[in-house]
Amino acid sequence: MNRKQKSIFLRGLLAALAISAVFAGPVSASPAWNFEGKSLEGSEVILGAAFESALTIPGLTTKCENFLYKLTIKNEAGSGKGELTEMPLFNCTTDSPACAVKSIGAETLPWPAHLTKVEPSNYIVIEKAKVGIVYSGEECSLDGLLVRITGTAGGLIDNTAETASFNPASFSATKTELKALSSKAEWGGVFPTEAFQWHRNQALTAS
Amino acid sequence: MRKYLKTTGAVGVALALASLASFVVAGPASAKLTGEFTKFEFCPYKTVGVRRCINSLTSGGEVVLGSKKVPIEKPVTLQGGYEEAPEEGPEEGFAKFVEATNGVTLSKAPQNVPGGLAGIVPEASSPPLVKALIKFFFENSLTGVTSTLELAKPASEIRINETHLAEGLGVTLKLPVKVHLENPFLGKSCYVGSSSSPIKLELRPDTTSPPKPNEPISGNPGEVTFLESARILKLSGVELVDNAWSAPGPSGCGGILSFLVNPIISAQLGSTTAGHNSARLKNTIWEATAAAVKKNFETEK
Predict the structure, then answer these.
(1) Is B210 in CB contact (< 8 Å) with chain A?
(2) What is the domain count for chain A?
(3) Range of the domain at B180
(4) Is B206 within 8 Å of chain A by CB?
């Protein structure tokens, strides 16, 4: 390759890189899990209870006082991954005087999870989520019906507060969606991200 | 004393009549459902075994019978109640429908058949007698033909699967119907389908798997909203489809000339065997439990 050919090649390469950077958009390389600033090696278990959580299908909101979860996290090829293995839900109620929650539970666990970056923030995306709710109440229009909430949920990770927040903005940023009764369902919740195995009391960050 | 008794008696009778009259007047005024519950006016919610009330308004779509496509331009209402669905057996998940209290479970809305009589009975290929009659009717501008979807069986033969409706998957409504073709020339008894040989629509909000030459078509499960503090579930934009049904040939068309007219109409419709027909019904559906409707009624009394 002579000098002229090299020059053309380099210019082409630079142009290609510039174009790919433009088309890559705001989604950057996947972040990883870190404890005290060091990349997690092996796996860790995160246990927690939602500070607050509500699921809304237009006209009916369901809240659970006790929304627990167990998430196993690890890094794979430098990217943060995870598996939601348990999600017990207790003391759930609705905002309708006609409807009570007869039973509620996560189905087909574990649900895979991964970290993603949508500039300038990091998010955790829970995939293949499936929760079944049976409502009761003789006047409740869903009395006896099994309502399934399915889809993917994206939550904003706050490294300072050590929380993951799920809300319409985080769903929109991660292009994720939950559905119930064939309609879009809104899920809001704030979850602490604290390690409960090898890295207790260590600051967990996604970066 | 007698005068006093007589006066007292007259007053008593007048009072009794007045209270009776007020009761009669007050009666119908209080027997009303309110708000969104008025959709369930004709739900048999007092009937033992009725668990839910439903009102489904079809405001668009089309029915394709062989080569004839009839758009649904006039609204059709399916209303009534339904029982608890069996949890096992051949009808698992499919609840039995209960007739509307006014007897109009499926409202009759005659839809215009595009092309009218000319589109149903081709003048050129008709026998001379039929040709003469068509000419007579054409000249009298009575060429419009309507098609009405009617129940071919009692309402109790309708089946509804509320789980499939809620999830937007699978057969949701089984509807035995017949198509009533009406025009002075066709007479009053021109039907495709009958009570002994109904068109069995199995409508669904997802994708069909029809026999050829039809191709799969997709419905739409719609969007859910809750009304009256979640006592009423409203599904908007629901599209129920079926293009796997078959229809028998026409019968009773042309009155005493039916032996001549039935084959002509049959030829015009083309094949109506499975794979040649389709139905798409665009609906808004309201549902509530019978207990909620009853409570609304009693609260307003």
Answers:
(1) no
(2) 1
(3) 31-299
(4) no
